[in-house]
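note to self — DONT lose this again. spent like an hour looking for the file last time. sequence + predicted structure for the chain T wanted, 216 res
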Amino acid sequence: MSPRSPSVNEELRRRSRERILQATVELVSTHGYEATTLGDIAERAGSARGLISYYFPGKRQLLQSAVHRLMHLTLEEALEREPRTEDGRERLARAIDAILGLAVERPTLMRTHMAGILQAEGFVQCSEQQRLAFLLRDTVTRYGSQDVDTDYPLLRALLMGAVVGVLLPGAPMPMARLRWELFQRYGLDWEQGAPPDGGPPDGAQVERVCQSSKSK
């Protein structure tokens, strides 16, 4: 049997790494961070335990890479779903809904992720985080930003704050209200993106009427 080519080996490594990241998302979402061991992840991914240490320096770094991968895949799917659009405002609305949606759909995973970022480790500079950053910067650019280097970090901070608001233990803020406030900030219509059931939050229509009156 002839040895595998470098390209084949690289593809096998890529698939192995992705299985590990996906297994991390699944297990932490279900069992939480502390109850999920690297051995559990390796078993779910069908990989050797030592392979995880080869790819990632520690469990926290693995989790951040796994969540950043989930975020950029979710964001990419939202931005490119049918009907396809190049409209910058619609794409920004989709981006906001995609990130807030993850906080609602995977609260345990996202709460753990945010806790890690807010601790000393901060952001893990990995390829998954870079892909996420590229998509968000591109969204800001298409929205019409004249200063992407300023507006991209601001959008990222606002999204992080909204996610924390949704996940705040004991006193979570309604997702619809956080969405409305972000949409108001960027001049987006409630119907853009993927609006949640139930329409705008209480008082939102009143705010819209008052703002329209002031503009006349």
